[in-house]
Amino acid sequence: MASKRMRYSLGVTLLFSLTVLAQQPQTVLQGIYTEDQAKRGQAIYKEQCATCHGDALGGRIGPPLTGQDFIGNWNKQPLSELVSKIRNTMPQDGPGKLSGQQAADVVAYLIQAAKFPAGRSELSADEAALKQIIWPAATAAQTRPSPSASQAPSFPPTGNLAQVMRGILFPSSNIIFTAQTHDPGAPPKQSTTPGAAAEEGFNWIVWGGNLYSGWELVDYAAVALAESAPLMLTPGRRCENGKPVPVDQPDWIKFTQELAEAGRAAYKASQTRSQEAVSEVSNQVADACLNCHQAYRDKGGRGLNALDPSNKANRCTK
Ligand code: HEC
Ligand code: HEC
To answer: Does residue 79 line the site of ligand 2, with CB under 6 A?
Structure first.
């Protein structure tokens, strides 16, 4: 009886302390990997990564995986992000080959190369545990210097707002919306008739349709959305009806920020290589478009038909 009770309470204590451990944030300064693990990681790196990232991590066709720029890119998020970036998208020419453990081993090697100390327990491949590991505040302060305003060239608008929408936002968001019903990870269909895509109308697939993988296309579409948000604020741009783009209106600026956030969220979701995650985030993208359109594009007239000419005259006004 007594021994049973003891085991029971030991179990409870163990469980309790494990939970506490799991919830305690750690930093990469606290010996989060072992020397042996880093050695294993180095061996994987040499074999599968060095051709693109350089023998000494200095970069070649891929970016350096050491140094200030690299750390500055990853130190604002938990270590889980770096591990899943590697696991889901690397090696770039054949992603998905590394196990979770191997990805953690490579990260142990990268952490060692960045001169953070080794410790007594290995870096775990467990997502929840990795989420608890952050970078110390000192590394988070590193930001890249931006060129001074006087040197920056100016880029006057080339198109009106509708053209920017149709040329950049429309095709990019369509790729993301398509991920709701089509798996970006599915192997590309081999067309038996060359130029078959052309029969379906004029589109960019005719040249370059197979150049990038489905998941890469989703990545790039998300980047395009996020990066195009500042174009909503280019001074001097006009709408199709000649009215100036309302770049000074606080709600316009807010809608622009929502677009940038939605693009960044879509990129993050795409990097997880989960169709479900992208489907989910596509709602945020749709909302970002809709919120601004309700205020500035779909201006009454007959219903919400955006192509109704009676709407177009009032676009871009309050
Ligand atoms: C065929 C070339 C190639 C191979 C092989 C390759 N990478 Fe990459 N890697 C790239 C390119 C190009 C990028 C930049 C584009 C991107 O971020 O997806 C990149 C980006 C990265 C990044 C993000 C770096 C940053 O600062 O944002 C990490 C981390 C990374 N690779 C790790 C690895 C690891 C680990 C391996 C081996 C398992 C590996 N890569 C193999 C080409 C490669
Ligand atoms: C900050 C406000 C804003 C955001 C955000 C925004 N739009 Fe627009 N959009 C407009 C306005 C205003 C117009 C009308 C432009 C004009 O008439 O020159 C427009 C026009 C369009 C058109 C052209 C419609 C036509 O008449 O042919 C498309 C397509 C479009 N937007 C797609 C999108 C998509 C997709 C998104 C989200 C990824 C988006 N927009 C986000 C404000 C916005």
So the answer is: no
φ, ψ (nearest 5 deg) of residue 134: -120, 175
- CA gap 110, 63 in Å, rounded: 13
Whether residue 260 lies inside any domain: the answer is yes
Q: Are 10 and 4 in contact (CB under 8 A)?
A: no
| CA pair distance 130, 309, nearest whole angstrom | 54
Q: What are phi and psi of 227, to 5 degrees?
A: -75, -20
Atom of ligand 2 nearest to the CA of 256: 1
CA–centroid distance, 18 to ligand 2, in Å, is 51
Q: What is the pLDDT of residue 137?
A: 76
In the structure encoding, which two tokens stand for residue 228, read together?
């195009």
Do 111 and 170 lie in one domain? The reply is no
117 and 202 share one domain = no
Per the structure, the complete domain to which residue 224 belongs is given by: 161-188+198-312
Q: Is 168 in the same domain as 29?
A: no
Phi and psi, residue 292, nearest 5°: -75, -40
CA separation for the pair 232, 128 (Å, rounded): 38
Q: How many domains does the chain have?
A: 2
Peptide bond just before 64 cis, omega within 30 deg: no
CATH number for the domain spanning 253: value is 1.20.120
Does residue 317 belong to any structural domain of this protein?
A: no
Task: For residue 145, tell me if it sits in a domain.
Answer: no
Provide the 3-class DSSP secondary structure of residue 171. Answer: helix
Residue to mutate, 234, 285, 293, ligand 2, most ligand atoms under 8 Å from C-beta: 293
Residue 259 in domain: yes
CB 37 within 8 A of CB 123: yes
Residues 6+ apart with CB under 8 A from 14: none
Instruction: Say what the pTM is.
Output: 0.81
Q: In this predicted model, what pLDDT tens digit does every residue of 54-93 receive, in sequence order?
A: 999 999 989 999 999 899 889 999 999 999 999 999 999 9
Q: Same structural domain for residues 165 and 307? A: yes
H or E, element range at 27:
strand 26-27
Ligand 1 mean position, distance from CA 59 (Å): 9
